[in-house]
Amino acid sequence: MKRLKQHVYSDPIPVDILIDIFSLVPGESIARFRCVSKLWRYILGRPDFKDLFLTKSSTRPRFFFSLHHDGKVFFYSTPQLLNQGENSTLVATRYHTSYPKYFPDPSKLRTLVCGLALFKSYERKIRVIFNPITGEFLTLPKLLLKNKNLPDMKAKSTIPDREIVAGIYLGYDPISKQFKVLCMTSSHCERPNTHQVLTLESGKRLWRRLESKFHFIENHRMANEICINGVLYFGGVLRQSSVIVCFDVRSEKFSFINMKRGMFDKYDIESYSCWYLTLFNYKGKLGIRQATKEPWEYHQLVLWVVEDSGSHKWSKQVYELPRLVYNSAFVFAGMAGTGEIVFSVRSPFCVYLYNLEGETFTRVHIQGFERFNTYIRTFVVYVENMEFM
Q1: Contact yes or no for 351/364 (Cβ under 8 A)
Q2: Tens digits of per-residue pLDDT, 306-358?
Q3: SS in 3 state form for the chain?
Q4: Which of these, 12, 177, 305, 366, is most buried using a 10 Å CB contact count?
Q5: Same domain, yes or no, for 299 and 330?
Q6: Same domain membership, residue 25 and residue 97
Q7: Do both 212 and 175 map to the same domain?
Q8: Residue 389 falls within a domain, yes or no?
Q9: Are 245 and 234 in contact (CB under 8 A)?
Q10: So what's the pLDDT on residue 111?
Q11: Is the pLDDT at 163 greater than 70, yes or no?
């Protein structure tokens, strides 16, 4: 007697439930899930899923690490779920991505913006947007140039008033949910700057020109740029004074914050240099970490915080650090989502969290870097973003 075959049918899982489930999956798994089926690829590419994943990812920020070893580039990240006040160990997750050799050197990465990174090469004039979690790259189109031979800042020019590309930055506006790339051009003449903006959205990506009423140049001695709550900040020189340039990503308007004279080393006041100033996110405000040239001042942690950008009001905080940081091996990385200051140490590689209120240090060992004998760049408050380009 033949056994009858039984077929069991079930209703498909609603898409909204699948979106909720996928939003809880670790970021490194999402990219692989896109290859499972057309349905899953469709769901993981939906704007509502990407928005939900980014929202949840923002509540669980991570540390991000980049390094260059044996001609290869490596990217890692770890969660920030730490036992405050207790030394701990975290295991680094590697992002398995292939990086074309003709692209800019990713080991020179200076900042991450809402999960995306901008790499730039002044020598080869290549600019690339990179998503570490998806492994995708986007090469930016060529700039709109009045002079086709418009050089980058590092190129030599014998024409005093020749316009040059001075800097390119990535910003994100959380309200419009848009990424924009700002290209700043300048010249030696006192004429207003001409800038270009490119919006990262589907379809044809084109540069648009912006006109600024000010003439300023980028201050290359600032350690980095940063985007906080839809405003992009970087160092500049305006009328022979060092300022913080503020670019509102949504309105595409510029403003400036005057820097305090006390931020500069006594030997650098006349040259307006600020090579030892690092921008960071101080609980949603712009913060600056002021380093020092003098070894006998390594024990001090000097922080400046913008209290009111309109009135150029800053507050200054000075902390006395313990003897373990009395050397330059401690590298300032920023402020973690927990409000603690993060330092990295090269050998053996680990990070230290400094509690500003309790003035205590916590050591965090990162597993996965034992075989590397190279500089490891540390970024704080990295959020995984499923933006597919």
Answers
A1: yes
A2: 999 889 999 999 998 877 665 657 889 999 988 999 999 887 888 999 999 98
A3: CCCCCCCCCCCCCCHHHHHHHHCCCCHHHHHHHCCCCHHHHHHHCCHHHHHHHHHHHHCCCEEEEEEEECCEEEEEEEECCCCCCCCEEEECEEECCCCCCCCCCHHHCCCEECCEEEEEECCCCEEEEEECCCCEEEECCCCCCCCCCCCECCCCCCCCCCCEEEEEEEEEECCCCEEEEEEEEECCCCCCCEEEEEEECCCCCCEEEEECCCCEEECCCCCCCEEECCEEEEEEEECCEEEEEEEECCCCEEEEEECCHHHCCCCCCCCCCCCCEEEEEECCEEEEEECCCCHHHCCEEEEEEEEECCCCEEEEEEEECCHHHCCCCEEEEEECCCCCEEEEECCCCEEEEEECCCCEEEEEEEECCCCCCCCEEEEEEECCCCCCC
A4: 366
A5: yes
A6: no
A7: yes
A8: no
A9: yes
A10: 83
A11: no
What are 51-67's pLDDT values in tens digits? 999 999 988 889 999 88
Question: Which of 23, 38, 59 delimits the end of a domain?
Answer: 59
Domain contains 277: yes
The pLDDT assigned to 240 comes to 76
Q: How many CB atoms lie within 10 A of CB 296?
A: 8
Identify whether residues 37 and 77 lie together within a single domain.
no
Q: Same domain, yes or no, for 133 and 159?
A: yes
Whether 239 and 289 map to the same domain: the answer is yes
Q: Looking at the structure, tell me whether residues 294 and 248 fall in a common domain.
A: yes
2 in any annotated domain: no
Q: Can you tell me which residue has the tokens 């349905």?
A: 39
Residues spanned by the domain of 341:
60-382
Report CA torsion sign: 369, 371, 376, 382. negative
43 and 30 in contact (C-beta within 8 Å)?
A: no
| CATH number of 278's domain | 2.120.10.30
Could you give the number of structural domains in the chain? 2
Average pLDDT along the chain:
81
Classify strands 231-238 and 226-228 as parallel, antiparallel or unpaired.
antiparallel
For range 160-178, the mean pLDDT? 83
Q: Residue 98 corresponds to which amino acid?
A: S
Q: Which residue, among 224, 345, 320, 316, has the nearest Cα to 276 in the 3D structure? A: 224
User: From CA 48, how far away is CA 56, in angstroms rounded?
Assistant: 12
Looking at 43, 59, 75, the residue that finishes a domain is: 59
Kindly state whether residues 44 and 146 are assigned to the same domain: no
Cα–Cα dist 291/278, whole Å: 8
pLDDT for 200 beyond 70: yes
